[in-house]
Amino acid sequence: MSRQELARFLRDRREKLRPADLGLPAGTRRRTPGLRREEVAGLAAVSVDYYVRLEQARGPHPSARVLDAVAGALRLSPAERAHVFRLAGTDPAPPIGPVRTVRPHVAGLLTRLPETGVVVTDATYTVLARNPLADALLGDFGPHPNLARRYFLQGQRAERPEGGPFGPIAVARLRAAADRYPRDEPLRRLLADLRERSEEFRELWRTHPVHAPGHRRKTLAHPDLGRVRVNCDVLAVPEDDQQIAFVTADPGTPSARALRHLVRSVRPHHGGDLR
User: Fold this and answer.
1) Cβ(55)–Cβ(29) under 8 Å?
2) Is residue 25, in this structure, part of any structural domain at all?
3) One Pfam annotation, family name (predicted)?
4) Confidence bin at 211 (pLDDT 50/70/90)
5) In which band, very low, low, confident or very high, does the pLDDT at 141 lie, cut at 50, 70 and 90?
6) How far apart are CA 65 and CA 47, in angstroms?
7) Are residues 142 and 247 in the same domain?
8) E strand or H helix at 234
9) What's the half-sphere exposure (Cβ side, CA atoms, 13 Å) at 228?
10) CA distances from 259 to 132, 162, 227, 244 (A)
11) How high does pLDDT run on average in the chain?
């Protein structure tokens, strides 16, 4: 265990956090930037004395549970969390669940690309954020916005997808998520629902499909515009195990004109939780 390095890392990350990042009042008597040690201890459900000793490199060997709690309190990324476990000389437990908030620089893409449909999903294909054009193009996502649920249970599918249907892609990602987050209850409920209600999902699950994010072309059936031929390019956000899908049309085509028409018809809104 590298106590000095662990202490320095924890102090550095604590001092970079703002109270507002965690919904805490800023107060008027903060002499130094960042959170107070007692605030981190409270968020991690450990004693203030215990956390202070960790930051002063004189604490005991922290357990995996304590490290998980401190990592959560400090809003560490998966890579930072793994680094903390390495410094403590402890085997990391699998994360409880996928990250379900969106970083500000990712959220900014939604507003900076008005003529591109943008959808951000977590490791379970739950839609975390989308821009107005994506809403207008893809339709209502419902109270539980999840692309796999939408595909397998609601029958909303692209016509003539090039590169194969979405089903194997969704199952490959959900299988990977189930391996990484075996303790995530929302994912367990989603998989149970899909297994119970979709024969196609059950058959695909048995085939163990493998897929990497990339480029696909598909034709969407829009209720007002008719068939719209679009490109779907996926960018991975590895630090949060998320994906950003960019939906565009080839310049100069009727589909591009259709997207511009939609852009003029939509009004901006907030599409997800941001951090």
Assistant:
1) no
2) yes
3) HTH_31
4) confident
5) confident
6) 14
7) yes
8) strand 226-237
9) 28
10) 11, 20, 11, 19
11) 86
C-alpha 257/C-alpha 228 separation (Å) is 10
- Residue 241: half-sphere exposure toward Cβ, Cα within 13 Å: 21
pLDDT for 192 equals 97
Give the end of a domain, one of 88, 122, 137: 88
Q: Into how many domains does the chain fold?
A: 2
d(CA 197, CA 42): 42
- What is the C-alpha to C-alpha distance for residues 72 and 82, in angstroms, rounded to an integer? 12
Strands of 159-203, DSSP E: 159-162
Range of the domain at 226: 104-164+210-265
Output the CA–CA distances (angstroms, integers) from residue 194 to 16, 97, 157, 166, 181, in the order listed: 41, 19, 16, 15, 17
Residue 128 and residue 273 in contact, taking contact as beta carbons nearer than 8 Å: yes
Q: What is the mean pLDDT of residues 167-176?
A: 94
Residue 72 phi/psi, 5-degree rounding, is -65, -40
Backbone angles phi, psi at 40, to 5 degrees: -65, -45
- What's the pLDDT at 2? 85
Question: Are 75 and 14 found together in one domain?
Answer: yes
d(CA 148, CA 189): 13
Task: Give the whole-angstrom CA distance, residue 184 versus residue 179.
Answer: 10
Residue 45's pLDDT is 93
Asked if the model's pLDDT at residue 55 lies above 50, the reply is yes
pLDDT of 270 reads 43
